[in-house]
Amino acid sequence: MTPATDALTPTSLRRAEEALLPYRPDVDGPFGAQQAGHAVRRIQFGGPISLRHEVEAWGPVRASVELTRLDADTRDHRALLEALDMLAGVEDLTTAQSIWLTRMLRSPRPFEEKLAVFWHGHFATSVTKVQRTRLMVEQVDTLRRLGPGDFGTLAKAVSRDPAMILWLDGNTNRRHQPNENYARELLELFCLGHGNYSERDVLEAARALSGWHESAGRFRFIAAEHDGGAKTVLGRSGSLGGDDVVEACLDHPACARWIASRLLRFFVHPEPGATLIDAAADLYRAEGHDTLAFLRTVFASRAFYAPRAYRALIKSPVELAVGAGRTFTTPLETKALAARLESLGQSLYSPPSVKGWDGGQTWLNTATLIGRLQLAATITASPESDDAVDALLDDQLPDAIRSTLPPPGSRRHVTSVMSLPEVQLA
C-alpha cells in the first residue's frame, strides 16, 4: 500500500522515472570536479584528487560501474586481508572495530565496505546483547558478501544468522510458544515498512520461523520446535517455513518500495519524495531486487547528480573519518579511531537499537561538534601536500573563507578545512 504522502499523477511519475535516466553532461548540467567529487564521496566514502580526475574522465555512466567494482584487487590488498582474517575470531570488540576500519581505509573496493555499513544499519544487530563479537563480525561478513546481490538471498541468510537469532530471541521461538520479535522486525523494519502487514501476519510468520535457533555459534533447525501446521502470511498459505515468509515479503509491492527508499536516503537524499521512491521501487523490482544493478543505475542518474542532492547528506562519524583518511591516504591508528567514533555516536557492531542509527541531524550536537574538531586533528597528524579545499570541497569555497585558512602543506591547513561546516556534508 503506497503512503499518500503526495499526489501521484502520471506527470509526476513520468518526471520521477526520467530522473532515473542517465545524467547527460552538458545537457542536464556540467560534469566537472564538483560532480566527480560528489560521486566519490557518496559511493566510496571519499578518495584522493587523482581518483576524482579519473571520474571526470569516465563520465557518470562509466563512473557508476568503476566506483562499484567488486573485483578490484591487489597483491597488497590480498596480503592485508589474509592478515586481518587471522584476527577474525577475536572476541575483543575494539580489535574487531579496528579491523573493519582498516578494511574501509585500505580496501581497493571501498563501495563494498560502504554498502556493508548501510546493511549493518538496516539489519541492525548489537554486540551489547549478542555478547559475542565473533558472531557480529561473521554477520557483517555476510552483509559484505551478499549485500550487493539479490535482496531475497540476503534476507534469508540474515534470518539464519546466529547473531540475529540471539539479538531478536530466536532461540525462544518454539512450536507451542512462538516469539514474535524477529518476525515483527522482518516485516516492519527489514522488508516492508510500517503499516504493510497485520498482527496476524506477525504471529503466522513467527510460527513459520519457529525452530530456527542458534547453537554453539551456528544456525540450527530444531525440527521438534518447528510448527509445521498451516499458516497464512501476507496472503501466502500453506505449511510455511522461514524462507516462505521471506518470499512472501519479496512478492509484496511494499518490499521493493521500502528497500529502494532506504537506499535512496542513504546514498542520494534524506527526503527523496514519494514519486521518486515509486519510480525507484519499479526499478528495484524490475532488476529482480538486485541491489548492485539498482544502485549502478541510480549512481549514473539525473537524480543522483541533481543540485538538490549535492551536499544534502550529513556524514556519519564513520563516513567523515574514513572519507578523510582515504582522501589524504593518512595512516590512522584504528583502535584509537574506533573509540573516538564511539564518542561521536557510531560504535561499529553496536547500533543503538533494532532501528539502527537515526542519522541526519542526530549526528550533530554540541558534544559531537567538538568531537569532530578533535577528530580533524587526528586525521591530520602529518602535513599533507594537497590543497584540502580542493581535495575535500572540490575547490568550492568562497574566497572570503579561503583567505582565512592557513596555507596548503601546513599542519594546520587540513585541520582548518576539516573543521568547516561544508566538510560535514556528503
Kindly list the characteristics that best describe this protein:
single chain; 426 residues; mainly alpha; two-stranded antiparallel ribbon; 3% strand
List the helices and strands and how they pair.
Blueprint: H1 10-19, H2 33-44, H3 49-58, H4 60-66, H5 75-85, H6 93-106, H7 110-122, H8 127-130, H9 133-146, H10 151-159, H11 162-167, H12 181-192, H13 199-209, E1 212-215, E2 218-221, E3 231-233, E4 236-238, H14 242-251, H15 253-267, H16 274-286, H17 291-299, H18 302-305, H19 317-328, H20 334-343, H21 366-379, H22 388-393, H23 399-402, H24 411-418
Antiparallel strand pairs: 1-2, 3-4
Question: What this model shows, in words?
Answer:
It is a single chain. The chain is mostly helical and 426 residues long. Helices cover 56% and strands 3% of the residues. The strands form 2 sheets. It has a two-stranded antiparallel ribbon. It has a two-stranded antiparallel ribbon with strand order 3-4. Helix 1 (10-19) packs across helix 16 (274-286), helix 2 (33-44) crosses helix 3 (49-58) and helix 12 packs across helix 13 (199-209). The chain is globular.
